[in-house]
Write a structure and sequence with these properties.
Rossmann fold; Helix Hairpins; Heat Shock Protein 90; six-stranded mixed sheet; five-stranded parallel sheet; 13 strands; binds adenosine-5'-diphosphate; binds magnesium ion; HATPase_C_sf; phosphorelay sensor kinase activity; ATP-binding; phosphoprotein; nucleotide-binding
């Protein structure tokens, strides 16, 4: 290969015998396509797929281990690539070539067979088809790359938004017990008896415990491992709820928590974030007080142990017209205080951990919304395995599954 071709997308011509290779390359060049000639299919393995426009092979290239090398090249292609390949074959006249050609055709999907001797126009039109198909594949790859990069950026930005909210919440939460501590210390200083001072001291210790609890749970949120593992989901639910205690009190929201030990095979950090999203939404929905119900229990779905996590609020509910849009990026009804990424991310997280997210909601009195997460306790349960599976009902009304 000449160095000038090293990073240029090109056709590779594998024609080990005679002048075929030279002629094909000449034809390609005159038609405006870059090409390179190699002696064996094995040499193709070293070339980055994005630089391969297609392969043009002659029968001889598939002999002496050529077909195995060809299969290897095809298997090593990235998901976006279906490498266009053109085989020039004399199979019609030579039985041994006919055998390799038919084997190649059976095993390699993207193969075009052309009988030798090939007319120039035939070869050029096959090359044109191969070239167009490759351009389409590269466009799809670029679009997919762009999409996953922007999804990743959105995930990060929602994580940052959550971090910001958690920090504001922590400062706020710590402030209350700090104020109480200040008052209690003042009382200790001015107390008339040792006994009185002692009881104020005990209350002060409780407030200190509260501060350290808040700091501890906030730090857990940031330190939680991202790698999946066998995780006690009930502990996660309690920990996530701890972060909202102050807000619940302020808004006169009663919490009803009923947790049984239930395990999920999941990323602790991700599920923590999903829970904080769902609890945050429930709290936002109850501006004037209400009940926040959190249930965790183990359930068996199709013989597979799952942790079921329910977060229910008695807020205004979700109007039918917007239910379609809930999981779309940037959909929010909270103006500038919302990001519209919480549910999108939550669904993504639950799916990535092999689980399922469902919700039901009603706007008529008594109004409210219930989100339920099912997390399998074993690794590698694909969401599709749960699809169509009867998931135990968590309430009377039919649920939407997303
Ligand atoms: P954000 O909370 O930033 O608005 P989300 O993706 O978390 O973004 O939620 C999208 C929208 O879904 C919210 O703006 C709200 O309208 C609606 N929503 C989510 N959870 C609830 C709930 N528990 N009760 C009522 N509406 C909800
Ligand atoms: Mg939200």
């Amino acid at each position: 290969m000449t160095d000038s071709l090293a990073n240029v997308p090109r056709f590779l011509v594998v024609a080990p015998i005679g002048r075929d290779g030279e002629l094909i390359c000449g034809l390609l060049n005159r038609a405006g396509y870059r090409s390179e000639r190699v002696q064996h299919v094995r040499q193709v393995e070293a070339i980055d797929s994005a630089l391969l426009l297609g392969l043009i092979l002659t029968d001889e290239a598939l002999l002496r281990g050529g077909i195995e090398a060809f299969q290897k090249v095809i298997r090593a292609q990235p998901v976006w690539s279906e490498l266009p390949s053109i085989l020039l074959t004399s199979g019609a006249n030579e039985p041994s070539y006919a055998m390799v050609a038919s084997r190649a055709r059976m095993e390699i999907q993207s193969l075009i067979l052309l009988d030798r001797p090939v007319r120039k126009e035939m070869l050029l039109s096959a090359i044109q088809v191969a070239y167009n198909s490759r351009q389409k594949q590269l466009q799809v790859r670029d679009a997919t790359d762009k999409q996953s990069r922007s999804d990743e950026a959105l995930r990060k930005s929602e994580q940052l938004a959550v971090t910001g909210r958690m920090m504001a919440t922590m400062a706020h939460e710590v402030n209350n017990p700090l104020e109480a501590l200040g008052n209690l210390l003042f009382l200790v200083e001015n107390s008339g008896s040792l006994e009185e001072a002692h009881s104020f001291g005990q209350l002060a210790t409780k407030e200190l415990q509260r501060i350290s609890e808040i700091v501890d749970h906030t730090l857990r949120f940031h330190r939680a491992p991202a790698k999946p593992g066998f995780t006690d989901v009930s502990e996660l639910a309690i920990s996530a709820l701890t972060l909202f205690r102050g807000k619940l009190r302020e808004r006169h929201i009663r919490e009803r928590i009923k947790v049984e030990r239930a395990f999920g095979y999941c990323s602790e950090g991700e599920i923590r974030q999903a829970l904080v999203n769902l609890i945050g939404n429930a709290v936002d929905a109850m501006r004037d007080g209400g009940n926040l119900r959190i249930h965790v229990s183990p359930v068996s779905i199709n013989g597979v142990e799952h942790a079921r996590l329910t977060i229910a609020d008695t807020g205004a509910g979700i109007r039918k017209e917007i239910r379609q849009s809930l999981f779309k990026q940037f959909f929010t009804t909270k103006g500038s205080s919302g990001t519209g990424l919480g549910l999108w991310l939550t669904r993504d997280i639950v799916r990535r951990n092999g689980g399922k997210l469902r919700f039901r909601s009603r706007t008529e009195t008594p109004s409210g919304t219930v989100f339920t997460i099912y997390l399998p306790a074993v690794p590698d349960v694909q969401p599709s395995q749960l699809r169509g599976e009867k998931i135990p009902q968590t309430g009377r009304r039919a649920a939407s599954t997303v």
